[in-house]
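job 3f2a | input accepted
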Amino acid sequence: MNIYLMLKWTHIMSSVLLVGTGFGSAFYLYFIHRTRNPAAIAEVIRLVVRADFWFTTPAIFIQPLTGYAMLSLSGYPITQNWVLWTFFLYALAGACWLPVVWLQIQMSKIAAVSVQDNTQLPAHYWQYARYWEWLGYPAFMAMLVIYGLMVFKPT
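job 3f2a | predicted structure (155 res):
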């Protein structure tokens, strides 16, 4: 078995989970928010939090480990510009993701209380939702640029 190809496969699969889970979560939250239905929103945000812990969190750790291992095996210097840009953009995405996790957890709690009390979602829920969305744009764009850097490896 070729260790490099196994690392590459793991790296690709974890990137699919990382970006796919984020994109899927954004898609479902964006559209469920348009309904203004607290029960539906509570269920979706609960599942978004779960997906982040089940899929995104492990992928966040697998990505740099497999990436570094592949760089070491392939002989690419870690100081190449495209590699340094991927580190910077990954850190940027991570800096956006950490507050997003906190926001998701808070939004899930707020939505659960609204369902329990049979009330509409309060204004601060919608403020958190806006922050959540705004943080998603730079994180998602950073990941798309990282994909391009990994594929094209510009000098």
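job 3f2a | Residues 13 and 73 are 19 Å apart (CA to CA).
job 3f2a | closed
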